[in-house]
Amino acid sequence: MLRLTNLHKIFNYGKVNENYALKDINLEVPKGDFITIIGSNGAGKSTLLNLIAGTLFPDAGTVEINGEDVTHWPVYKRASLVGRVFQDPLQGTAAEMTIEENLSLAVKRGQRRSLRPGLDKNRRAEFKRLLSLLELGLENRLDCPVKLLSGGQRQALTLLMATMGHPRLLLLDEYTAALDPSTAQQIMAITDRIVAEYQLTVLMVTHDMKQALAMGKRTIMMDRGEIILDLKGKEREKLTVNDLLAKFAAKSGRELTDDRILLHG
């Protein structure tokens, strides 16, 4: 479904602050897989998602989605294939617009626009059905401006909007990091429901090692632009956070010292 082949990305090439962000990344993600990605700051996690989404282009290597080479496709051209949710709950919605207006825009993601009305009785009914999956009561607030929602409600709405066009791939970029622990747990439960509803393939970046082991079917650990661990199946099921730290140390030859990861561990 997703195939990354020999991906390289260098920032500030040839300059004193040259940074090799990704080094020879090779990854195959079957349809329906749910991968969590963990690593310290500068490990290359967000750069990896940016190359998949089309926000950045690689210096070498290819990105294939559903058998098609999309390496040099811009973001808008990948919009029907890739949905993404960012860390900031404010980033994925239009604050001054209502819930139903935001959903109407999301429905047209990656499609040609027309002069036909974006809302009708049937579409509102479908919006209510989808919002009911969130179990937040938003199905009864279609005409509510998004700016009046809480951070958790807004992030849940963003998650729904990112998946309404039935993308091939969903990218979650530390999407619960700005939420309190209780709300984060709620958003994770909502994620499970939406992923099951649409049978999505998911890549989720997180600093929370417990979350990385609890969510999905497979965990990848990155360090200095490389994938150093790829854990799945029975090996992953038995792992604790301490096990993961030990594996990182054994593979990288050094201890993990990133406070954000250790605090969440």
Automatic annotation (TrEMBL):
GO terms for cellular component: plasma membrane. Its main location: membrane. PANTHER family: NITRATE ABC TRANSPORTER ATP-BINDING PROTEIN (PTHR42788:SF7), TAURINE IMPORT ATP-BINDING PROTEIN-RELATED (PTHR42788). It is found in: Cell membrane. This is ATP-binding cassette domain-containing protein. One of its GO terms (molecular function) is ATP binding. Residues 2-249 form the ABC transporter domain. It is a peripheral membrane protein. Keywords: ATP-binding, Cell membrane, Membrane, Nucleotide-binding, Transport. It comes from the Bacteria. It holds the Pfam family ABC_tran.
